[in-house]
Amino acid sequence: MSQAPILETVDIVKSFGALMVTDRVSLSVYPGEMHALIGPNGAGKSTLINQITGELEVNSGSIFFDQQLINPLSAAARSRLGMSRAYQVPQLFGTMTVAGHMIMAQIASKHQGFSMWKKSADLHELSSVQQDILQQVGLLHLASKPTASLAHGEKRQLELAISLSCDARLLILDEPLAGLGPTESEQMIELLRRLKTRYGILLVEHDMQAVFSLADRISVLVNGAVIASGTVEQIKNDPLVKSAYLGDELEAH
Fold it and tell me: What is the pTM of this model?
């Protein structure tokens, strides 16, 4: 690719005592690209994401966002650069409305600190941009509803909407299909397909059918190390990936 990556990790290492959980991992995500990170449970995917977002410090190696070294930056500072993470379990306030979450996210993105709490209570109308975002994710008709009343899939959609409202340039999505039924999964896949050309996306997902349908590139993490990285077809046909991770399941898709 001719353009520079929005995210790049170079030989990052993380260990807890004698346990190596991130073993010289290098990967990149380009603007408009979906890069999927797959691997068995315990492979170190969450630890790797936590290092990228700044929730864990790396022992060695470098992390670049838009070609800027971000190792010294806090998680909040990385978020302000345009890095946004949606967690496997939605991080939402049950009594706050969908609109309230969007308003709070917008105020937080303006770096107004704890003043957001008062201002979010005083603002009752969404901006046209926020309405457009909720329309994109299919939640505009639920703007006045408290999040506790949302279905699980709708909560995942709201987390995406919050990420988009914070001027994100890189979306880090941790198993967005987890817990979704067939219809909800189809809706989420279609939403991600619409978003993938507009943002750099690092996707962690166990649903291989969705990964193969959506990803531009895939990296396979096993025991903390990337054992293969490439296009969908390259990963499907990689003998090491077949033996170390999914075996016959890769061939089934």
Answer: 0.86
